[in-house]
Amino acid sequence: MTILSATVRLMRPHQWVKNGFVLVGLIFGHGFTDQALLSKAGVLFAAFCLVSSGVYVVNDVLDREADRAHPKKRDRPVACGTVGAGTAIAIALLLAAGGFALAGWVSSTALGLAACYVVLNLGYSAGLKHIAILDVFLISAGFMLRIFAGTLGLGIAPSHWLLLCGLMVTVFLGFAKRRAELFALGSEDRAGGGRATLQRRVLDDYSAKLLDQLIAISAAGAMVAYALYTLDAKTIATHGTDRLVYTVPFVLYGLFRYMHVLYRGRGGADPAAELLGDPHLLAATTGWLAVVIWLIA
């Protein structure tokens, strides 16, 4: 493996789909008709791709011992020794610097939010990820900072409904990720087993029953919040249409399909991989986006 290919693997480009949250405000704030705003949003998307990749590299360095005990993560460049820890940190610093430069070009607010994203994730990697429930809320906070960057960072006022829907969806994805990790460990390791401590210590503080309840609550919350958003009088006035309610089936199907993949297919550990790899999820997301833009454009 060359240093170039190892660096690309360290950056985890398939995870960049998560930075699509940066563009949500542009869509619902009707900014997609403004060429200058579109350009800034594209630069901001690239900025978060770089800083998030920098965070992934640092996480790989800190978790290299635990990753070596994982059946899949042990092949990561740092864990398998292809890239040394010092080299990896240098790569992370370059990525973060590039991301900060791009975010700063967009606005000082965007730069501040990108910096908050990095600080949040460094705290997560340094030990906060070992605290049950808080770990998932920190994952969700990373997504919310992307939404804030794509709204406040571009001079767009974020909708309270948008923030509520974003929170519920990302909390759902976080708890689904933990449930998938319990599935991967096997029943003998759930809530206190040996391999959980080696691979992800926080799993010792979760149980399958608790996570199932948290997933159900957050999925229901996400669905209800989005449905109410489409029916809200202010939403109808803002977008000039009362037909956004017709996009609810896409969201409902996407949530149900994700739960099907989680419980039947034993996926869900990597939301980005599931979205790109599952044709149903990809179709539901693409269909939802296309209909939303068609209705409000």
Could you explain how this protein is built, in words?
The protein is mainly alpha-helical and 297 residues long. The protein folds into two domains: 12-158, UbiA prenyltransferase (Tetracycline Repressor, domain 2); 159-297. 70% of the residues lie in helices and 0% in strands. It has 14 helices and no strands. The chain has helices at residues 3-11, 24-28, 35-62, 64-67, 85-106, 108-126, 134-151, 160-185, 194-199, 208-231, 233-239, 248-263, 271-277, 279-296. α10 (208-231) runs antiparallel to α12. The longest helix is centred in the first third of the chain and has 28 residues, at 35-62. The radius of gyration is 19 Å and the shape is globular. Mean pLDDT is 89; it is low at 188-193.
What's the SSE blueprint?
Elements: H1 3-11, H2 24-28, H3 35-62, H4 64-67, H5 85-106, H6 108-126, H7 134-151, H8 160-185, H9 194-199, H10 208-231, H11 233-239, H12 248-263, H13 271-277, H14 279-296
Helix pairs in contact: 3-5, 3-6, 5-6, 6-7, 7-8, 8-10, 10-12, 12-14, 13-14
Range of helix content: over 70%
Number of strand elements: 0
Name of the top-level CATH class of the largest domain: Mainly Alpha
Order of helices and strands: HHHHHHHHHHHHHH
Query: How would a crystallographer describe the biggest sheet?
Result: none
CATH superfamily descriptor of the largest domain: UbiA prenyltransferase
- End-to-end span in angstroms? 46 Å
CATH topology of the largest domain: Tetracycline Repressor, domain 2
| Reported CATH architecture of the largest domain | Orthogonal Bundle
Principal-axes geometry comes out as globular
Q: What is the domain total for the residues? A: 2
Mean pLDDT score, rounded?
A: 89
Q: What is the radius of gyration computed over CA atoms, rounded to a whole number of angstroms?
A: 19 Å
**Approximately how much beta-strand content do the residues carry?**
under 5%
